[in-house]
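Protocol step 4 of 6: record predicted structures for both targets in the notebook before any analysis. Target 1:
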Amino acid sequence: MLNVSFLKNIGNFALDVSFVVDSEILVLFGPSGSGKSLTLRIISGLIKPDKGFIKLNNASFFDSANGINLPINKRGVGYVLQDYALFPHMTVFENITYGSRKGSRTDINKKAAELQKFLRLEGTEGFYPHQLSGGQKQRVAIARAIASEPAVLLLDEPLAALDYPVRSKIRNDLIAIHKRFRMPTIVVTHDIEEAFVLGDRIAVIEEGRIEQIGSRDEVFYKPATRKVARLLAVKNIFDGVVKKVSSKGLSATVESDGFSITVNSKDNLKAGGNIEFCIRPEDIKIIRAEGEGLKAKGKMGDKENIISAKVFDIQEKGLAHTIFAGISDDDYLFQINLPNSTYRKLSLKKGEKMKLSLPRELVWVIS
């Protein structure tokens, strides 16, 4: 288990983070400049924090209270950089085996050959980095990190420089690697899809602070703050007033911006109190005039929290469409993401009237 808690000041920027990583993939998600990559550099030993500790099981990598600061080569950390950092004068095989110190040369070569097969690099042993594709370079960098038998694996934006089809394959490789080696793994990314696919848990970081950490579903569907919701592209965030709390306190009626819905209650909800709530754009359902409900994603029926609206605008976004829906002609209130297959079935037009359903189980009360 990797346990970190440290502070690092660089100019006006302060990185102050604490978290634990078990035999899982923890995704550090956040915008550029939030401190994601700096966190990895500190864990690896490239940068020394001002105070705190970095521990792996019973061993300390860094402990300011006890004057401990192990050098990089003593930490047993595998580190994969966004730009691969391959040695241009070395072959693929030489890059992979560089840094491997455990076992005989025969064992090292055997392990390298196994990794080449596992990562689909067979036949490239004698190639130099300039002869490889972007995906091959990244797989070589991953193989090199694994070949040294690290206790912890750090990956800094490992897919950012790759095109979409290659990213998908490398994502699968990373998942397969983790299933095989089961080491604490931290992946840095600012890509929402990448975070969702890779993360067993996700830590949302902003301006040097972890805003929320939890399982993938907790973070994506139950954001702790409005800031987290925005960072995770929860486009539908509303302020409202609690009009009524059910007798058993399990639900509450809320009014907001000209519409009224029922939400699952929290302990602190009281009639007359202010409330923040949200729903992901994939979870709002569009109900056609004849009552046929269509949606991008959801779990409930199509007759819950019904709101009359009309199409304000439509944007095509590659494999999906975003519908902007409003109650009045002034502006839109809701964003609904639809896969293209669903959009084609609906055949929506700008200005068309429709009904929306906000399934209660998918509406999250932030505060």
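Target 2:
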Amino acid sequence: STSEPNGLFVYRSTDGGASWNGPFTVINNVPGVFEDKELIACDRSNGPHSGNVYVAWARFFTTQILLSRSTDAGSTFVGPVQVSDYSGVQWPVPCVGPNSEVYVAWVDYTPGSILFDRSTDGGQTFGSDITVQSTSFVYGYIYGDITVFSFPAMDVDITGGPNNGTIYIAYMDDASGYTDTDIYFTKSTDGGNTWTSRVRINDDVQGNGCDQFHPWLMVAPDGSIIVVFLDRRLDPGNLLMDLYMTTSIDGGTSWSANERITTVSSDPTAGQKTMLSGLPREAFPIKTEEPLILAGRAGLLGEYIGVAASSIDNIHPVWTDTRLGNQDVFTGFRIQQSIREIPSPEIQCNTLSLYPNPFHNKVFIHLSISECEQIALSVYNIAGRKIATELLSLNRGGKYFVWDGTDLARGTYFLFIRTPQITRSFTVHKL
């Protein structure tokens, strides 16, 4: 509300998210405005402004794109500076290039387009706006009263690899002649001066009447591009939604087949307080101790999903899910279930099993092997961090050893058992 004090603040963690300090003020108590759609970026490059923190946002109701910067790890912020040349814009997304370039992209309402600007002096000044792509869909509602925008989900390759410095954008739009929305991709290899023609990256049948929306994009440290988005292709009625993902390992030249991440489709109307399509509220189970979601705009489902990845094999998306009757935050991760074996005519592992699973304290790992081997056991937690390594020498014939997980918290763990000949992985659950 512009009639109430409002501002933007950040918290900071220096121990991997275990504890947080703050709040630290970005902007506060500017009269008669509403600060909205704030996103943060950190300079992780080896450039001259490494370590700087940037927050970009839209100010209502002049709808300008603003940016403030911090040079002391978020303790204090200076600014803001105006990024956009004109008003009537929203949804800024910042990122930082390999030489400390600050990039910001956003949506322009008139005419419909995605705009882009950059700073080469650590966010102190910006140049003239550059048009990335024209869009026919800018802002509106899709079935289920979900608010959607053609916002630019943007990231830049800072890996030092073959695509270092390339800027990538994924966004939602509808194509000429069709009413449903799709996800498109474009990139720039010259710092944002020029952009490639857009490419549709959702692989369902075009014009099938099923919407794709709310994309997010990131570049992993191995240079792979990951895009996640909400998708209705499984529902001919174009209401229920799932999270899908596609990836590229060649700088966006080609894309993997779209992969469904969710195991249960979400109804965006779940938890609404009033009747919907003749169905009473009781048709959608809710947790009565939770605040009720008001009808309209899908209870403000929100326009935000996200994804983080350390590599193309370690991806963690985050999305809004309603399978439990209300809007909840869900995440997912890929479980590596494949078994990789290097055959040897002389040394073979005939059996490899573990029990019990789920377990309370200890896991028995049984092997039958043809000769003396050095066995390595590595244990990883759900965040992908190695928490234990054990070595055991096995004599010829069947043997077993015990992994003691007594001191671990309840949860899911990944066990990798390696010999010079084989690697096998197991997912175990501690109760």
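Step 5 preliminary note on target 2. Residues 297-300 form the longest helix (4 residues). The first strand starts at residue 7 and ends at 12.
Proceed to step 6 after PI sign-off.
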